[in-house]
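Project standup — Tuesday

K.O.: blocked on the structure for the chain from last sprint. Re-posting the sequence here as requested.
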Amino acid sequence: VQFVESGGGLVQPGGSLRLSCAASGFTFSNYGMRWYRQSPGKERELVATITSAGGSTNYADSVKGRFTISRDNAKNTVYLQMNSLKPEDTAVYYCHNRAFPGYWGQGTQVTISS
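H.V.: unblocked you, prediction finished:
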């Protein structure tokens, strides 16, 4: 099982980023997926979830209305579109499948700063 996150970077407040996570080692289309984030000194926070076919999504209150999770099962990839970014969104972002709790990728750093 492997997760490879990409798409992070440094953007100004109000900007946008699209994160991608390529998953392998399991039948991607059979599982829901999640995005988490972790800031220095804070616990890892669940940001968004999506069901296996993409028909249902859920978001943390802190990102609702600004972030959109989606997936492409043909590409074994889950995405996180992040708009109206705020400095408090600064974190390392990870995708995850809770069916494989011990497996995490390296994450992708998102920094929101002027």
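K.O.: great, moving the ticket to review. The longest strand covers residues 17-24. Strands lie at 2-6, 9-11, 17-24, 33-38, 45-50, 57-59, 67-72, 77-82, 91-96, 108-112.
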